[in-house]
Every structure is written in structure tokens, then in C-alpha cells.
Design the sequence.
């Protein structure tokens, strides 16, 4: 049987909005979508720190544009490791947010010190401020968090694993053999080939790269190209990752 035809999708699965205290005020839904279009991206994921409050607004802003928006979060685990958690639907994301909120310490955000956490609508207009401290570690270990994300049907991708701040390999010193992750993300200054050479524990882990955009002009500067035989979704991205580098995906 002939293999179904596949299309290349340019994907950036790590983008912040103004809900992340460390993101610039330009990171609002219409400008994020416009920048993604200008950079030739087909799929983006919104991944604010321990928060999903602006996901629906970006999804709404992208309707009819040709850019698919996946809802997600960048979770900070109790080990102080950042993990991208990516879903298909807002219902999954709300269920995940409820779990994460139960793991967060009851702390208020110090906006003067860390920056404000703005909630906006699809046009980018201010609708509120999230006053809960979102940048503190959640009281959940990375392996438990990964299992919980998979139970909800999401993707698990430890972020910028080689970085000396919140990077899994730097914090833990190795890739946990029992970690149920779909891929590892490396930063823009490291190629997958370099990561494999430097970190032997990544031997069997698919490696991708994303922008980790906190500024508009970062969006899409680092990306992964996925070869998909179906509409972009958690399932089709996972299938491409399982097919392996070059056949299912590559970092240009």
C-alpha cells in the first residue's frame, strides 16, 4: 500500500503572551498571529508560565488566518524544570490548568518585581490581571506531571533541556529513563546533532527546537518542520516524532 502523501508544516511550539510576566507587552494575540504569518509558520503553541488564560484569545485571533494554534503551557515542576504541555482543545487545557492550580503555592505575584501578568482578548485589549504567582515551581514532579498530561491526551516536551536555568539536563544531570516524554527541546544555539553528541542519555529521544518567544521578532526564528499526513494535532505531531528525525521532522 502506498504511503499517504505528507505535507511539511513549519511549527513553533513555544510562544509566550503578556500573561507571562517576563514577556514584552507586544506579545498580544493579533500581533503574535500576524508575526507567525509573516514568518511562514503553519502551527504555533501558546505556552505561558504555569498559565493558560490567554490561549483562547490567541486561538480566536487566528481564526481564518491559516495559522493553527495549539493550547498549551510551560509548566515549572518542583525540580525547577520547564516542560511544554501541549493539547488539542480548550477543554483539555482547562482540565490541566485546574490540576496545576492545585499544585501551585498560594502566593501573589509581585508585579513590581517580576512584572505584571496581563489577560487580554482576541484584539489584544486588556481584560484583567492574573495576580497569582505563576513563575514559582508547582508542587509536582516531572514524571508525575508527564503522566498527567498524557492522561489528558497532551504532548510532553521538556523545554530548552541544555540551558542552565530550568533545563532538565542541567538541573538533573541526565534524562530520566522512566520519563514519559514525547521529545526534548533544545535552544536556538544548539543543534540536535550537538545535543546527541554532548548528552548520551538523549540517544533515543526525538529532539526539536522552538523559539521560546518573549518578543515578537523571536517568533519562528527557531522552529521545527514536521512532515504530517494529517491535520496538525497532538496525534499527528506525536506520530511524526515517533517516525524519527528526517522522516517525520527536522530542525532547519
Sequence:
Amino acid at each position: 500500500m502506498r504511503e499517504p502523501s505528507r505535507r511539511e508544516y513549519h511549527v513553533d511550539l513555544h510562544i509566550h503572551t503578556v500573561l507571562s510576566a517576563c514577556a514584552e507587552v507586544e506579545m498580544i494575540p493579533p500581533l503574535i498571529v500576524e508575526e507567525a504569518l509573516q514568518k511562514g509558520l503553519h502551527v504555533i503553541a501558546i505556552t505561558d508560565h504555569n498559565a493558560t488564560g490567554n490561549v483562547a484569545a490567541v486561538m480566536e485571533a487566528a481564526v481564518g488566518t491559516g495559522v493553527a494554534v495549539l493550547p498549551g503551557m510551560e509548566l515549572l515542576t518542583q525540580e525547577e524544570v520547564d516542560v511544554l504541555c501541549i493539547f488539542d482543545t480548550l477543554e483539555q487545557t482547562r482540565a490541566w490548568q485546574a490540576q496545576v492550580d492545585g499544585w501551585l503555592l498560594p502566593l501573589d505575584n509581585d508585579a513590581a518585581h517580576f512584572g505584571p501578568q496581563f489577560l487580554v482578548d482576541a484584539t489584544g485589549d486588556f481584560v484583567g490581571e492574573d495576580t497569582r504567582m505563576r513563575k514559582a515551581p508547582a508542587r509536582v514532579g516531572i514524571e508525575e506531571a508527564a503522566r498527567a498530561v498524557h492522561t489528558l491526551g497532551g504532548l510532553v516536551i521538556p523545554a530548552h533541556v541544555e540551558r542552565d536555568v530550568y533545563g532538565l539536563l542541567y538541573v538533573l544531570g541526565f534524562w530520566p529513563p522512566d520519563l514519559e516524554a514525547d521529545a526534548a527541546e533544545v535552544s536556538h544555539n544548539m543543534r540536535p546533532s550537538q545535543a546527541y553528541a554532548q548528552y548520551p542519555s538523549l540517544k533515543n529521544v526525538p529532539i526539536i527546537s522552538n523559539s521560546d518567544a518573549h518578543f515578537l521578532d523571536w517568533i519562528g526564528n527557531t522552529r521545527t518542520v514536521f512532515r504530517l499526513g494529517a491535520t496538525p494535532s497532538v496525534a499527528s505531531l506525536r506520530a511524526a516524532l515517533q517516525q524519527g528525525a528526517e522522516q517525520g521532522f527536522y530542525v532547519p
In short: Residues 19 and 117 are 4 Å apart (CA to CA). The mean pLDDT is 96. The helical segments are 29-38, 55-61, 90-103, 111-114, 142-151, 168-172, 192-198, 234-243. The first helix runs from residue 29 to 38.
